[in-house]
Amino acid sequence: MVNGLNEKEAKILDYLKSLSKDGNKRIEFYINDAVSLTQIRMEELEEALIALEEKGFLKIVKVPASNNFLNFIRKKLLMLDAAFLTDQVSREDYTKKYEETISCISDLEVRHIYSPLPPADLSDLVVGLSNTLEYVEKLRREKENIKKETYEKLVTDYNEELREVINSTLRYVDSVAFAIELNKRVIDDEEKELEMVEVDEKIKNIDKSERKKAKMEKIAKAKSAIGVISKKIAGNEDTNTKEKISILEKDLKKLKEEYEVIQARVMIEGNETLKKSANELHDTILSKEKSLDELKETLKKEMLKRDIKRLLEDISQKADSLFRDKLLTGDIMKGINEIKTKIEKICQEYNIYLEQTK
Question: Are 332 and 321 spatial neighbours (Cβ–Cβ below 8 Å)?
Answer without folding.
Answer: no
